[in-house]
C-alpha cells in the first residue's frame, strides 16, 4: 500500500492543475450553448445521495422532452414510469444534492449539471408533462449550481456511438434469466422475457 494516494495534496502533485479550458467552461447557469445540448439529449444519468449511500439512475425520454428548462437556473425532470423502487426520489427528499449527466447520441461531449433538487406533485405541473394522457407522479425541480461540458475522450475511447461496438443480441443474460437465477426460479424466466415487449408498450408512460 506504499503507493496509495490518500491526501488531496498527493493527488494534486500527481495530476497538476487543470488548464483554462477545463475551468472556464463551468458556469452557474444554463447558457444558450448548454441549452442547445440539453434540448438535444434524450438520456441522462441522475446521481443522488442518501443515508443508505449513493444512487445513479438512468432517465430517458423523447428528444426535447427529457427535461424542461424553466429558466437559466432551473430544470424540471418528470418522473416517468419505472420500477417503483424510487431510490433517487427517496434520496432527494432527504438530501437535495443531485448531479446529472446528459448524453447525446452521435455527439462526443457530455453535459454535466450539479445542483439541489426538490420534488413537486403540483397537479398543473404534472399535467403539463402528460404524454398520451398519462401524467408523471412527480417532477424533480433542480436548482442549477454548476453546468459544464465533459470532453469527448471517454465517449471516443468507449466507441459508444460506433455501430461496430454494439453488443450482439442474445450475447448477454436477459432480465428474465437474471431474475430466475437470483430467485431460484420464483421470479422471471422465459415468460418474463417473452411478455416484455407488450408490457413495456402498455407501461412506457
From TrEMBL:
Transmembrane segments: none annotated. Residues 30-151 form the Pyridoxamine 5'-phosphate oxidase N-terminal domain. InterPro entries: Pyridox_Oxase_FMN-dep, Pyridox_Oxase_N, Split_barrel_FMN-bd. Pfam families: PNPOx_N. NCBIfam families: PPOX_FMN_DR2398. This is Pyridoxamine 5'-phosphate oxidase family protein. It comes from Roseomonas indoligenes. The lineage of its organism: Bacteria, Pseudomonadati, Pseudomonadota, Alphaproteobacteria, Acetobacterales.
